[in-house]
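User: Teach me something about this protein's shape.
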Amino acid sequence: MTTASRSDSVRGGGRAAGGPEPTSVQVGTTLPELAVHADPTFVISTALATRDFQDVHHDRDKAVARGSKDIFVNILTDTGLVQRFVTDWAGPRAIVKSIALRLGVPLYAGDTLTLTGTVSAVDGDDIHIDVVGRDSLGDHITAKVVIALRGTND
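Assistant: First, the predicted structure itself:
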């Protein structure tokens, strides 16, 4: 079963339903952690949902034969997780303008990915967020995300 959790400040509805106000976002603001357990069903279903039929994402024997420890999450799933992480914090008014993602160590089935993020710049309407996703092997994802928050009347 896939599980995800956030810090107590968000789990109980600690974040305003609309997300942060653009004027309240400052450099150094940290986003609440998001932990995602990547059980085999998660790894396989997300690869297939993103139409990635490479056997290393769904066939353990073939993944091992190709030098991997197990099946592992694909980059499209990683990109979706980063987007979810940022938009869960920013709320429904967030527009994702860009995601630049770099992969590090694999995220194998059975491991847990923990995403953390920090606002690194605020440039007009653009909010720049540095995101890191770590698993038991180290840094799995390093990403730079740019979002904008639509006004309440948009």
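Now, about its shape. The CA atoms of residues 19 and 89 lie 6 Å apart. Strands lie at 4-6, 30-38, 94-103, 111-123, 126-135, 138-149. If you'd like, I can walk through any region in more detail.
User: That's plenty for now, thanks!
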